[in-house]
Amino acid sequence: MQEDRENDSPKTIRSVVRALSVLNVIGGDSKGISAISKELQLSKGTVFDLIKTLEFMRYVAQDPKDGSYRVGPALLKLAVRRFSENDLVEIARPYVQELADDLGEIVHLGQREGMFAAFLDRAVSRKVTRMLDLNSQVGALSPLHCTSMGKIFLTYMSDAEVLQFLDQQALQAYTEKTITDRRELQEERRRIRQRGYALNIGEFEEGVSSLAVPIRNARGEVIAGLNTAVPSVRMPKESIPGIFAKLKNAAQQIEKELGA
Question: What is the pTM of this model?
Fold first, then answer.
């Protein structure tokens, strides 16, 4: 019984235990006051007070169609935060390493850090020794407008965020191929959305190419990116579809682990 569980420890606070019990009950399916009351063996008045408090804090929400209650936006937001950088790295690492082995190249896991892209993890192939020696240490920052990882984040930022970026950051030319025109950059964002991946062909460093794909959470938001960087001679145009397919597959596996 609920009463027995509440008395298991003298340090428990009854109202907190009951409120969490309500959340546990509606965590799977939406339920009404009567169903919650019956399952927890609490009076309807007690359940009503608990529900209204949780609703006020947005931890539960009422379905306007049938009056039942379900998990609210505040609780969902906490669940999303559960996957911190460390969690993401831990979940993604085996897939990042497997991808590096499969491609025979360096693979990076990254996240947006303000107006830059940051490397969260890095894997090198255990099977091939011909990989590009990049200065891409974990924690390193790279620009958004001329790296494949950065372009992924720039593409899926809101229009308002992109305008803020353009107002605050100069589109610095790192090579002759760097995009430095605002209109051209917006067109590049459109192309990336259309094809599903971002390319950097010598735009940040001469002779170096990279390809990146997004990693999304359960709400479809881009929370990270996955890329590989290679000497441009090892990424001819005809190899791009195959590289994209492998990156996309790895990203989808990570997304499944994240509950997407």
Answer: 0.66
pLDDT for 240 equals 95
3-state secondary structure of 177: coil
User: CB burial class (10 A; 0-12, 13-18, 19+) of residue 256?
Assistant: exposed
Tokens of 37: 């009351």
- Measured between alpha carbons, how far apart are the two ends of the chain, in Å? 35
User: How far, in Å, CA of 69 to CA of 23, rounded?
Assistant: 10
CATH (one of 3.40.50.2300, 3.90.245.10, 3.30.56.10, 3.30.450.40) for 83-257 = 3.30.450.40
Name the packing angle between helices 182-195 and 148-156 (round to 10°). 90
What secondary structure does DSSP assign to 47-111, as a single string? Answer: HHHHHHHHHHTTSEEE-TTT--EEE-HHHHHHHHHTS-HHHHHHHHHHHHHHHHHHHTSEEEEEE
Which class is domain 2-80? mainly alpha
Q: What is the pLDDT of residue 10?
A: 47
Residue 253 backbone dihedrals phi, psi, to 5 degrees: -65, -40
The series of mean pLDDT values per 10 residues for the chain, 260 residues long, is: 48 82 82 92 94 90 86 70 67 94 93 88 78 65 93 94 88 93 95 96 93 94 94 91 96 89
